[in-house]
Specification:
Number of strands: 5
Strand content: 5-15%
Number of helices: 4
Distance between the termini: 34 Å
Oligomer: single chain
Helix content: 55-70%
Strand order of the largest sheet: 1-2-3
Largest sheet: 3 strands, antiparallel
Radius of gyration: 19 Å
Length: 180
């Protein structure tokens, strides 16, 4: 899978180095810390999209195995969700280095996670109706994975808000601490 590399908007502003990400500025005392922060964000985004991809593969496999038992409307809705996720991931991979795509990458990640949840919930209804215990267990696992991804995205938001609230004192991302 291709890797996401966000636009590196590291700029010197006075004595501080500034990174503009998702509509917010993050200040660091030196360029190295700012670039390390950018690398950590890239790694985090790539890990999130890898999880989206692996969960999508699971959901697609379950969808195909239950294909003939699904109602036409459900089948079409699940296919549309899968197609929209694939399109969002492809666009993010192709355009991640564009300057304005730093914000959109996070939006696409949240949209992919939400679409996965939607597809899983539709498949869970069919699995429940037909009594497919193996599919139900796999769907529960995929649903839990989506919930964990959403929790991780919210944790990133909280860390970013905390950084801004403390006016650049501490930012942690996956056990990375950069003091500014």
């Amino acid at each position: 899978m291709e890797r996401i590399v966000l636009f590196k908007g590291v700029r010197k502003k006075g004595k501080m180095w500034e990174v503009f990400l998702r509509g917010h500025r993050y200040n660091f005392t030196n360029k190295r810390k700012a670039e390390d922060f950018c690398r950590q964000v890239d790694t985090w985004l790539n890990d999130q999209f890898d999880q989206v991809n692996s969960t999508l593969v699971t959901v697609y496999g379950i969808s195909r195995s239950m294909h003939k038992f699904q109602h036409v409307v459900t089948r079409c809705h699940v296919k549309n969700c899968i197609h929209r996720i694939e399109k969002a991931v492809d666009l993010t991979l192709q355009r991640s280095d564009w300057e304005n795509w730093t914000t959109i990458s996070f939006t696409k990640l949240a949209a992919c996670t939400q679409l996965l949840m939607e597809a899983i919930e539709l498949l869970q209804v069919t699995a429940q109706e037909k009594g497919y215990t193996i599919a139900k267990a796999d769907l529960r696992t995929a649903h839990k994975m989506c919930q964990l991804m959403q929790a991780d995205q919210k944790a990133f938001e909280v860390e970013a808000r905390e950084y801004r609230r403390q006016k650049g004192q501490v930012f942690t991302l996956d056990n990375y601490a950069a003091t500014a």
